[in-house]
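Honest question from a wet-lab person: if I give you the sequences of every part of a complex, can you actually get the arrangement of the whole thing, not just the pieces? Trying it with mine:
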Amino acid sequence: MIRVQQEDFDIGGEIEALKAGRGDIGAIVAFIGTVRDQHGAVSEMTLEHYPGMTETELARLEAEANTRWKLQACLIVHRVGTLRPGDNIVLVVTASEHREAAFNAAKFLMDYLKTSAPLWKRESGPAGARWVAADPKDDGAAARWKKRAAE
Amino acid sequence: MRVLYFAWVKEKAGIAAEEIDPPAEVATIAELIDWLKARGPEFENAFAPSEVIRAAIDQSHVRHDARIKGAREIAFFPPVTGG
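Yes, you can. This is the full assembly:
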């Protein structure tokens, strides 16, 4: 399941909902991305996105994760709009019978989300506002999964 | 076709969305970028350098050599930075 929303998410509530009434889950991995203040340089972060395509891309990533690993459940929630340091940005929850699939799928989803979901961060602080530049390390992290596809 | 701009491409172009009707010889994303850039300094600036600009046709990522024929919606944006 995927969601794009302005409002915060309740991490515990999301995980409880995901496993409610299920006895087939043995491992749950959650990743939460949050806003950093970068030692006082950032007081606000605004996330812009491409409505429609963001949802399409996140659903595509979820489907791809499901073809690579046997997952019992998968959830991606990404926030948009204006956030402050400490606020949640993104939640990825993966559930599987054993931990390895859940760990790997969660990392895969984050690595791919960072390079393909059409979202853009704009940070503002005492020195003004700037669009965050893409980190080449993120491309490398996503590319590593392409090599592993053949394994 | 409808063209959308996001993030700093939108800011530099000074527009979020527009309807365009490029001539038939504009066949690919790369050619469309050149055609858009020729319309004025704000577009020249928005697409500089054009190699870093990402494009989507009908909400799917495409490369600059992708053909635009039949596209309903084309979007231009910087490398993504979500997550």
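Two things worth pointing out. The mean pLDDT of chain B is 97. Chain B has one domain: 2-77.
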